[in-house]
Amino acid sequence: MVSPSTTLFLSLLLYVSFFAFSSQSESKSQPPKVSLELYYESLCPYSANFIVNHLPKIFSTDLIPIVHLKFVPWGNANLQPNHTFICQHGPNECFLNTVEACAIDIWPQLGKHFQFIYCVEDLVNQQRANEWKSCYETLHLDPEPIKQCYNSEHGKQFLFLGYLVTEIVLLRLELRYAAETDALKPPHKYVPWVVVDGEPLNEDYENFLSYICKAYKGSDTPKSCTKVSYITEVKAKNEPSVCNKEREEPTWRKLSSKLSSWLHKMNLGDPF
């Protein structure tokens, strides 16, 4: 179960985001929003940490009305022949990437799909990813739409590679996110990969608030921007907090790795 403090925080996020977007809809003379794009994968611990411990800052400040936040749940996955794909952290990651992609599609309101993604990633952050279905109850969400999305005409199929048998989800949404990630210029090197108005922040992604303030073109500068120092250079890190893209492995090693993954019982299960 998600802790009471997490539930309270999620409820607060819903209120703040709803208020911000309601206020925004009343004004038709707003300057262009600053785009904030997060390219990530569900089981990368650094992606989960960013979503849980850093990204919510835009909801606790006055920045959310000037930001267009977009999630792209693909990360370092590899698209295979026949439009199947393999994820860096195994089939469970493919599964949760797809579930979160469905959530974005079903609940396009930022306040709603952010809460769901936050709840799932909070459990990933606590190494309790197998409890992700508790987020339906925690957030009072109907799980049926996710089930329909996951099992709809987007479909499932099985990928057969020699003796390897592994379940790979084939979903139009994920293929779209794969294309968007592949189109990045410059290409992403790792996740989380944070982009503000087309500018990748590289390893300085935790300072994303500063870049949002710098990119904002409106005259009515949010008060939070006066409190955020602008970052002019990236501080070197001994151990970058990222999940690097894996180098291309020999086919036999991929098969061995995937076979080992299959032999371990998948503990995330179906959406229901």
Automatic annotation (TrEMBL):
Pfam families recorded: GILT
Coiled coil: none
Main subcellular location: secreted
Residues spanning the signal sequence: 1-25
CC annotations in GO: extracellular region
KW Secreted (keyword) present: yes
Keyword Metal-binding on entry: no
Keyword list, A-Z: Glycoprotein, Secreted, Signal
Superkingdom of origin: Eukaryota
One Gene Ontology term of the molecular function aspect: oxidoreductase activity, acting on a sulfur group of donors, disulfide as acceptor
Location of the protein in the cell: Secreted
Similarity section: Belongs to the GILT family.
Name under which the protein is recorded: Gamma-interferon-inducible lysosomal thiol reductase
